[in-house]
Design brief:
This protein is α/β, with parallel strands linked by helices and about 450 residues long. Helix content is about 50%, strand content about 20%. It contains 12 helices and 13 strands. The strands form 3 sheets. A 5-stranded mixed beta barrel has the order 1-2-3-5-4. Strand 9, helix 7 and strand 10 (about 250) form a beta-alpha-beta unit. Helix 4 runs parallel beside helix 8 (about 255-260) and helix 5 runs parallel beside helix 6 (about 215-225). The radius of gyration is 68 Å and the shape is elongated. The protein starts with 9 loop residues before the first helix and ends in an 8-residue tail after the last strand.
């Protein structure tokens, strides 16, 4: 082991220095970026310096750390670096190795604005399809801005110069400071209540911090939800804020915003003349087409009418040439001749028909008589037997042998003398005829 005063190699010296630096705790260093040219094209690492008013130190940010920081480094950006010192043995250069990288000051504000922009974009507030159309010629415009600045005068002069017919409504508000977003939101409501064609939300230029009012989330949502189209003209050409992104139209300056809603009078005159010429040409074409169509329709109508009249004339001539019109008495004569002919045929046909029917009837009667006789033979024998039986059982046969049937006045057969009284009237049915008698006496059977 070398003594305290024995010399050591450069490598050993750097290793000892590196070991000493390793014993230092993790620290947070704030400074301003300078000399930034990264990330390295081959490795992706970033090599730059940070400085303050008195000192400068080298910084290394590894590729993975830079990829997850959420913002881009550039000269002049204020940052906070969390890490520690290290020595590179190859050249003995000491650098601060940042393990964590955060923006501060304006950089932090820009990081917050970028995060809000991504949030609102994901919700669709920046989609072009959501933005409302703005009339090309606005007749009433409301301006929301500070009443103490020159912006109002610039907007008024621009409108008077380009189109003095535009009606201007000015609604004052704060455009800077912590209370500004709330006053602008109220001013937007007041401006929308007068029902203008568009609202100009404008202010003059300023630093990034001055324009942070227009990066407020509540104000951005109010601009997107405003019932009247909103046109922004905030700051200067390179300045872009969240309100610009959600507005229906973004202009680079307040003057440009005023010009966008008030076309110049000469431009209006040119547009009017152009439209007049286009209208005249269109009307001429329409009249020519209408004239051609009218002539064509007139020719078609004339041909159609002539054709219809010809058909009707031929039809009338055909009707007029009919015999019923030229010789109307011929109808009666034809009917009379037809009747006479029919009468002759009828007189000739009737005797023949009767003779045919007579012969047919006679033949049928002969056949029916023969058939009837054959059909009645078995019934004649049955009838004779039934007649003989009936004859044998007939009471008339009994009466013919001297018996009689006595009936009272009501027609009831009297079979018992006890049912009679002296003086009763009786009718007595004999074998031949009926005798009426009166009961003189009654003798009951013993």
């Amino acid at each position: 082991m070398a003594g305290q005063n024995d010399p050591i190699s450069v490598t050993q010296a750097l290793q000892d220095a590196k070991a000493c630096l390793k014993t230092l705790p993790m620290m947070v260093v704030a400074g301003e970026v300078t000399g930034f040219h990264g990330p390295n094209a081959r490795s992706g690492h970033c090599y730059f310096q940070v400085k303050d008013d008195q000192s400068v130190m080298d910084v290394i940010v590894w590729r993975g750390t830079y990829a997850t920081c959420g913002f881009q480094l550039h000269d002049g950006l204020a940052v906070q670096l969390t890490g520690g010192f290290d020595v590179y043995p190859g050249n003995g250069r000491m650098s601060f190795v940042a393990r964590k990288l955060e923006a501060s000051g304006e950089g932090l504000l820009r990081q917050q604005v970028a995060a809000l922009a991504r949030k609102l974009s994901a919700e669709g507030l920046m989609d072009d399809a959501r933005k409302r159309p703005i009339p090309r010629f606005c007749t009433r415009v409301a301006v929301v801005t500070s009443l103490s600045g020159k912006v109002v005068d610039d907007v008024r002069r621009t409108l008077l110069r380009r189109n003095p017919l535009v009606e201007l409504q000015v609604v004052g508000c704060q455009v800077q400071g912590p209370e500004a977003p709330a006053t602008i939101i109220r001013a937007l409501g007041v401006a929308a209540s007068v029902r203008p064609d568009a609202i100009l939300l404008v202010r003059g230029g300023g630093s990034f911090e001055d324009l942070m009012t227009f990066n407020d989330e509540a104000l951005a949502r109010a601009v997107a939800a405003c019932p009247v189209p909103v046109i922004t003209g905030i700051g200067h050409e390179p300045d872009t804020c969240i309100c610009d992104m959600v507005a229906d139209r973004r202009c680079s300056t307040p003057t440009a915003a005023a010009e966008s809603v008030a076309p110049a009078m000469d431009e209006l005159a040119q547009v009017t003349a152009t439209r007049q010429q286009r209208l005249a040409r269109a009307m001429s074409r329409m009249l020519e087409q209408a004239s051609v169509a009218t002539e064509s329709s007139a020719e078609r109508a004339q041909r159609a009418i002539g054709s219809d009249l010809s058909r009707r004339r031929l039809a009338l001539e055909a009707l007029a040439s009919r015999r019923c019109l030229t010789q109307p008495q011929s109808l009666v004569e034809d009917r009379l001749s037809a009747l006479e002919l029919t009468e002759e045929r009828l007189h000739g046909a009737l005797p023949r028909s009767i003779e045919r029917r007579k012969d047919t009837t006679t033949a049928q009667a002969t056949r029916l008589e023969a058939v009837a006789q054959r059909l009645l033979v078995p019934y004649d024998a049955s009838l004779a037997r039934a007649a003989a039986s009936l004859e044998a059982l007939s009471p008339l046969k009994v009466l013919a042998r001297g018996y009689a049937i006595a009936r009272d006045e009501e027609g009831h057969v009297v079979s018992d003398a006890s049912a009679l009284q002296v003086g009763d009237q009786l009718s007595v049915l004999l074998g031949k005829g009926t005798a009426h008698t009166q009961v003189m006496s009654v003798e009951s059977a013993s």
